[in-house]
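Marked as duplicate of an earlier ticket. Keeping the data here for the record.
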Amino acid sequence: MEKLNPLFDLAGRIFMALLFIPAGAGKISGYAGTQGYMESVGVPGILLPLVIIVELGGGIAILLGWQTRIVAFLLAGFCIVAALLFHLQPEDQMQMILLMKNIAVAGGLLFLVANGAGALSIDRWRQKS
């Protein structure tokens, strides 16, 4: 089983990236709606470009395994902040599920912080060069 670890590392990074890349891209195509939603919960809409960069850029970095520990740390913090700002609504069961999803994703990202991207990554390739 241990021989498969590089593939499991890669699959885990792909699955995490599949959460962030489409979310960031969707915010570009739905810019005005996303900005309005952010403002409706008290988050300045001017922060939307930063959110897009974090989600899209961070997702791509995780996918490629580039600067993985740093990016995973930032994305974990992003997930926790987003959970608390947008999903902490105890009266709404769906929002609480989304809150727990964000917390769980942050936990997975912290595994990347602790263990790195794995063998099939730019990080590992750069170490060998």
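See parent ticket for discussion. Residues 2-120 form one domain.
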